[in-house]
Amino acid sequence: MYRRVAIIGGGAAAAALLSELLERQLPQPLHLDWYTGGGNSPRGVAYGTRSDKHLLNVRAASMSMFAARPHGFLEFAQRGDNSIAGTDFLPRRLYGDYLETQVERALERARAAGHDVRVLPFEVDAIVPEHDGVNVIHGEDSARVDAAVLAIGSLPPQPLSGVSDAALDSGLYVTEPWSFLAQAKPDARPRKVVLIGLGLTAVDVLLELSALWPNATFEAISRHGLLPEPHLQHASAPADDSSELIEAMRDEPYIRTWIRLLREAVAQSADWRTVVDSLRPHTPSLWALLPEAERSRFLRHARWAWERVRHRMPPQVMAAMKALEEADRLHRRRGRLQAVDVAGDKLHLDIRRPHGKGVETMDADLVIQTVGLNTDVRRTHHPLIRQLSTNGHATADSLGLGITASAEGRVKHDEQTWPHFYVIGTLLRGTLWESTAMPEIRQQARNLADRLLKSE
Fold it and tell me: Structure pTM?
């Protein structure tokens, strides 16, 4: 087993791996350095919200941190309220509490077992992988470890092209919605707020700001103008036997063929959700079959549709969105942002309408970018990722989906693979595609812990 391991990142993926490592009965003590970035909380961006309006989009029974204890989160939640059911969609705030509790317990167990665990609330400045270990550098300190795991989650959002420097400097164009929500005040009272993007992040922003600013109206713009699909009111099981569909997809790894096959399967099912959910365990292996040209075709033409049906919102959240529309406070539009600039005390937007229908203009008191996770290593300003890319220690996924890595998470550089440098979570999207939700991340954490602790 590796004797000394470093985990870089302070969110849920890092917390899951840390806890998996410290859960095991080990033949010898483990030295573990956990670089959490800005603090000691494992909540990260995803579970850092304190608002009860922001719900998990996965039912409570499926949100355990541990693959071996699938109902861990449900049991935690029921200790506070025994009326909670496994089919409930609970506040993300509560899940953050659960993560913190599990990490605390793991650290207590580690101390009792004699492990040397250091929680370091610092950013890592550089990682230098070598064939017999990894150097982790923070300031003037350098630690040599047997293995290092990059678990930083998604990258900081970047402004969309067409947004002027003046718009960014004005403070009226928001690129980081979660930081903004944490600081938003009731007395700001903008009359017209524009959201760029209509995924789950946009929904959370709408839930919070519509309550905070009851006189505001919201314009939400995306290429399709559609909200995420809702979950059913009651849980539904995946299709009983999707083997025929999966086999047909494996035989012809082309996006057009897959869309046709999925449409046929949906037409024969009682509900399309069962078909989509039946694909989830097979998504990484299916994604691996796609040539790069087909992956690119998927991202251009089908990604938005897949995201809508794969990442669904709770039924009560859909009801809240419909209520906003019925009250004439939410208007959805199809289009692409072309330009944003300052116009007096407002922002002026140019929106290219679909199908060559020209450019629509509008003014807004506030514009919030809610386009989802940023995984584009090629264009990020994240210092550590830039260091890894510049020094040739990691290679960006060619389609902007994170870092190139093997299926088990070993980081690649050019055509080679570092034997002791791993990545977990969102930046594995280029390799696995399905790599952002806790059910997948907890399995990655378990598999990686097995790999790190196995006997050489």
Answer: 0.94
